[in-house]
TrEMBL record:
KW DNA-binding (keyword) present: yes
Family per record: Belongs to the 'phage' integrase family.
Entry-linked PANTHER family: PROPHAGE INTEGRASE, PROPHAGE INTEGRASE INTS-RELATED
Domain Tyr recombinase as annotated: residue spans: 204-408
Higher taxonomy: Bacteria, Pseudomonadati, Pseudomonadota, Gammaproteobacteria, Vibrionales
Domain Core-binding (CB) per the UniProt entry, residue ranges: 103-183
Matching PROSITE patterns: CB, TYR_RECOMBINASE
Transmembrane segments: none
Protein name: Site-specific integrase
Amino acid sequence: MAIKKKISASSIKQLRVDDKRLNDTEIPGFHARISSSGRIVYYLFYRLDGKQVNLKLGPASDLTPAQARDLAREKMGEVAKGNDVHAVKKQTREETLRRKHLKLSIFLEERYLPFLHTRNPKTASRTVNHLRSRFDFLLEKDLDQITAWEIEKWRSEQRKLGKAPATINYTVNTLKGALSRAVEWGLIERHDLTKVKAIKSDNTRVRYLTEMEEKRLRHALKERGRNIRLARQSANEHRVKRNQEPYPCLDEVAFADYLEPLVLVAMNTGLRRGELLNLAWADISLTGKYLTVRARNAKSKEGRTVPLNKEAFSALANWRQQNPNSLYIYEGKSGQPLTDVKKPWALVLEAAFISDFKFHDLRHHFASKLVMAGVDLNTVRELLGHADLNMTLRYAHLAPEHKAAAVGLIG
C-alpha cells in the first residue's frame, strides 16, 4: 500500500517491498516505487494538456533522494512552462541512439559544460578541465562503458603517488556527478560508479607551526624579499648601462612582492586560500580594520567579517600603499586574482626547513593559536566561517604542551 512521507535518505531506507510506493509530501507527483526485488526507482507524475505522464527520473542506485528531488523540482518547473519533459527525454534518447555511442569527451564538451555554466560560470571550465586532465584515459570511452574497476585501478595508482584520500575522493565524486547528470538526462540508463565507495581517511589532521618553525618561516620570507630586491638592483644597473628605462625600485617599499603580505594575512585571519586570493580592495576596510569574505567566495556560501589585528592591518596598509590602483589585493600580471602560489610557497618552506606543511595549514595555525590563547571555540568557529562547532573541534586542537600545562595546574 502506498505511503505518504517526504522522500529523504531515511524514508527511502525504511521503504519496504510491501509499501510498493512512497509519495512525496512536498512535490506533487514525485514518488518512489519499489519492486518485488527491492529495486527502487524515482518517478514524477504530471498532467499536460489533458495527457497523464509518469516520467521515470532514475533508479535509487544512481540518484540520491536529494538529487531525485532536485530533478523532480526542475522537471515540474519545465511542465509549468508548458514543456512536455517526457517528450524531451524521449527525443534525447533517440538522439543518443542515432549517435550509437556517446563519448565522455563529447558529453563533457557539448552537454555538461553548458549545463555547469548555467549553475556557476566561474567554476564550469575548471571542473570540466579537471575531469579531462585526471581521466584523460577515459575520454574516448562510451559513457556507459566506464567501469568501477577502471576507477578503482586509477585510485590505486593515485595512492601510490602519494595523493591524499580527500583529493582522490573529490575527483571521483566529480566524475560521479557528471555521470549522474547523464542518467538524469536519459543519455544512459545507469552508470557503474555507484559501486565505488569513498576512501575512508582520518580528516582530523591539524598541522600548525611550532614557535621555532614560525620564526624560520618569517625569516625565510624576509630573506626571499631581500634576494628579490638585490636581483632588481642588479637588473636596473644592467638596464641603466644600456640606456633602458629601469624597473621600479624596491628598496623603499615594505614588500618585494605579494607572497609575504599574503602569508601574514593568512596567519592572522585564518582565511582559506581561495578566500584570500579572491579578496578585492573593496572587501577591506582599513578605517574600520576588518575585511569581508563575500558569500560567493566562501566555502560555506555565507559571508563573514573578520577583524584585522595589528600585523594583518599593517601588512594590508603597506601593500595598498604599494598598489594604489589595483582592483584585487593579490593580482597577477593580467590584473586578475592570482590562482596559484604553489611554487614560491614551496621554495619558502624549503628555505625555512619546514616539512609536511601546506598553505591551508596556516588556517590551522591561526585556529590553534587562538585556542591556545584561551579564545572560546564558538568565537573561533565564527572567525573560521565553520557551519557548526564540530568542524572547529577538528581544526583547533590544543597543542600537547598546552594540554600538559593545563593538567599541571591541578597537580
